[in-house]
Design brief:
Layout: E1 2-14, E2 23-30, E3 36-39, H1 49-61, E4 68-70, H2 89-116, E5 123-126, E6 129-132, E7 138-140, H3 141-152, E8 157-163, E9 182-194, E10 200-210, H4 217-236, E11 242-243, E12 246-247, E13 265-271, H5 288-291, H6 293-305, H7 316-334
Parallel strand pairs: 3-4, 10-13
Antiparallel strand pairs: 1-9, 2-3, 2-8, 5-6, 6-7, 9-10, 11-12
Helix pairs in contact: 1-2, 4-6
């Protein structure tokens, strides 16, 4: 027999390194042809940080994403931006790039204001063109770069760094600022439990997360979907075991991972609550979307068949054992009490 149930779980997650100073730095150059070169020691693991940095730099520098070139990320040649982890890539590195762009644009506006004989605060740039509001003067970014280089000898370069300003735990009373920004989320999971085999299938997950300013909505949704599938493996399949200190699950034949056939339908609800604690107002979503998934699935199993799984993963064997234990308890309760002689 198959029974369905739904479970809810809520979560919070601190962004970037915990209770220690986190930082990232970047260089930016407004190059020939009106293109922009961005140099920072980021690491792309498939999470889409390259796209995010191109979007941020393009918006800040008044060009298109196609005009952005991301340079070599070898920290022997570019500023350090630290590791890919702790859901920190957008939060730390995108802010560092934005600040470096601010520095470069301040220099560009000052130089263009002098070139045109206008006030710096009238200079605007967007989609590859720059102009001075109220004066009628305008040209492409390519022409502007050419004029600054060859008429004034100016190469526009900006640099800056961003720090999270976390504080370490106080050794006496433990107080600290372990994180500056938090992601809040709620997820609902719908499951189908086969009471004959113990198999659990996740049919759907609804995930609502406060992710701060959304730079790339499709990228955020992809991160949520990937996190849900990863957490599904944690909840139902991935069972690392050891015997006398030696792994007894050495390969994927025994250590089971979810495949595309196990992936549920994921409905993402993106809540854009701008974070006032950083220049871009961003947060992150890579790891936070994992946190509520597993408890939501386990709660859904309880809703479906009334058993509490307290050891992960909820394999068919463990589900069947819990169902058997539940039946034994119900049978004991159903037994009539023995008659006792009254003396």
């Amino acid at each position: 027999m198959k029974r369905r149930g739904r479970g809810v779980a809520c979560s919070w997650y601190g962004i970037a390194r915990t209770a220690s100073m986190d930082r990232a730095a970047a260089w930016v150059e407004l190059d020939d042809g009106g293109t922009v070169k961005v140099m920072t020691g980021m690491t792309e693991l498939g999470e889409g940080i390259l796209t995010v940095l191109c979007q941020v730099a393009a918006e800040e520098m008044g060009v298109t994403p196609e005009d952005i070139t991301l340079g070599d990320n070898d920290t022997a040649r570019v500023p350090e931006a630290a590791h890919a982890g702790a859901t920190r890539q957008t939060y730390m590195i995108a802010n560092a790039v934005a600040l470096a762009c601010h520095d470069a644009m301040a220099k560009f506006k000052a130089a263009m204001a002098e070139h045109w004989g206008v006030a710096p605060d009238t200079i605007r740039a967007r989609a590859g063109r720059c102009w001075s509001e109220g004066s009628g003067q305008a040209m492409s970014m390519s022409e502007a770069v050419h004029s600054l280089k060859h008429k004034h000898g100016i190469v526009v370069v900006g640099s800056d760094c961003y720090t999270s300003k976390h504080t370490a735990l106080d050794p006496e009373d433990g107080h600290a600022t372990p994180w500056r920004s938090y992601v809040w989320g709620t997820q609902i999971a719908e499951v189908e439990v086969d009471t004959d085999s113990g198999e659990v299938q996740v049919l759907g997950v609804w995930a609502a997360h406060d992710v701060g300013r959304i730079i790339n909505p499709r990228g955020v949704e992809a991160q949520i979907e990937g996190a849900v599938v990863m957490a599904l493996g944690h909840a139902l399949m991935e069972d690392y075991q050891q015997t006398d200190g030696i792994t007894s699950t050495p390969g994927f034949a025994k250590y089971i991972l979810p495949t595309s056939l196990d992936a549920p339908q994921v409905t993402s609800v993106l809540i854009q609550d701008i974070d006032p604690e950083n220049p871009l107002g961003v947060k992150g979503i890579g790891e936070p979307a994992m946190v509520a998934t597993t408890p939501a699935i386990i709660n859904a199993i309880y809703d479906a068949v009334g058993i509490r799984i307290t050891v992960l993963p909820a394999t068919p064997e463990r589900v069947l054992a819990a169902l058997k234990a539940k039946r034994a308890i119900l049978n004991d309760v159903a037994q009539p009490l023995p008659l006792r002689a009254v003396t």
